[in-house]
């Protein structure tokens, strides 16, 4: 069942969304060459506890996982794109890291993800990240009241194909609100003007993700981490968005980073 949220309820989701955006921005600053993935995970655990929030990932046990997920972040490196299990790995120069996080505050949930390069970037990696970010912005623009779900999917697919990438249909966006995963499913490719109507009050997580040279995936032995089937690089961008009478409202925007005169430890693509 799809629950349309009131303006007040969207406002409560926005509280969770603001914290998700702020914490993701903070974590992207923590991540650097020489930093262990588990240090990033434990930093997030401390901040979530301090805020009185609840992770949507902890004890999450869908059909495709192997046992409950016992972390608050998905940390996916290089050819890993979704559900990356935090583990004892020290980030190296040029690694492409995707951080995905969903949490709840006072019963309302928000979900967001970003990808970036730590250290020296490869232009091909920056292009891949940019494609997911541009696709996300196009999908948000397409999420207009009175439109159709296929408008969002078509916008993502059009951008992906324009960059020369293929699109996997197995995982995509989803409804969100009181829980992390609600109806409807949002494919990352599709046909415009098809599918359910986008009514005000609908809240969704839109999340284009791409592999550099394939649309096929494989799973690690941990049962969680999803990688490109051919070992090529991957990227993932996501925002929680509310459909309002006046247009889409992004609930998980990240704060604009302050100018830094020091040598950067990572080089992001265009801001999501």
Notes on the protein architecture:
Residues 259-272 have low confidence and may be disordered. 50% of the residues are buried. This protein has one domain: Creatine Amidinohydrolase. It contains four helices and 15 strands. Strand 6 (173-175) and strand 7 (182-186) form a beta hairpin. Helices cover 27% and strands 24% of the residues. The chain starts with 6 loop residues before the first helix and ends in a 5-residue tail after the last strand. It is globular, with a radius of gyration of 17 Å. It has helices at 7-30, 37-51, 123-142, 149-162, and strands at residues 54-55, 74-77, 80-82, 96-105, 108-118, 173-175, 182-186, 203-206, 209-211, 217-219, 226-228, 234-236, 239-244, 247-250, 266-267. The longest helix has 24 residues, at 7-30. Strands 1, 2, 4, 5 and 15 form a five-stranded antiparallel β-sheet that branches. It is α+β, with helices and mostly antiparallel strands. It comes from Paractinoplanes hotanensis. A divalent metal cation 2 binds at residues 111, 174, 207, 238. Monomer.
In a nutshell, what does this entry contain?
With 272 residues, the protein is α+β, with helices and mostly antiparallel strands.
């Amino acid at each position: 069942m799809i629950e349309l949220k009131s303006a007040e309820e969207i406002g409560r989701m926005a509280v969770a969304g603001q914290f998700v955006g702020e914490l993701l921005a903070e974590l992207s600053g923590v991540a650097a060459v020489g930093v262990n993935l588990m240090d990033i995970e434990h930093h997030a655990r401390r901040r979530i506890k301090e805020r009185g929030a609840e992770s949507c990932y902890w004890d999450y046990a869908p059909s495709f996982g192997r046992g409950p997920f016992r972390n608050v972040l998905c940390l996916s490196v290089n050819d890993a794109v979704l559900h990356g299990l935090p583990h004892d790995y020290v980030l190296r120069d040029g690694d492409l890291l995707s951080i995905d996080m969903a949490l709840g505050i006072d019963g309302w949930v928000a979900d967001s993800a970003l990808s970036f390069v730590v250290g020296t970037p490869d232009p091909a990696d920056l292009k891949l990240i940019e494609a997911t970010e541009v696709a996300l912005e196009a999908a948000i623009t397409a999420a207009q009241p009175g439109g159709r779900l296929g408008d969002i999917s078509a916008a993502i697919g059009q951008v992906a194909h324009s960059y020369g990438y293929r699109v996997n249909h197995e995982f995509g966006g989803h409804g969100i609100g009181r829980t992390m995963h609600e109806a409807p499913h949002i494919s990352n490719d599709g046909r415009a003007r098809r599918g359910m109507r986008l009514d005000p009050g609908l809240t969704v997580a839109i999340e284009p993700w791409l592999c550099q040279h394939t649309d096929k995936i494989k799973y690690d032995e941990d049962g969680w981490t999803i990688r490109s089937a051919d070992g090529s690089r991957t990227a993932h961008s996501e925002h929680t968005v509310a459909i309002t009478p006046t247009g889409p409202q992004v609930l998980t925007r990240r704060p604009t980073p302050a100018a830094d005169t020091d040598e950067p430890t990572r080089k992001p693509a265009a801001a999501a």
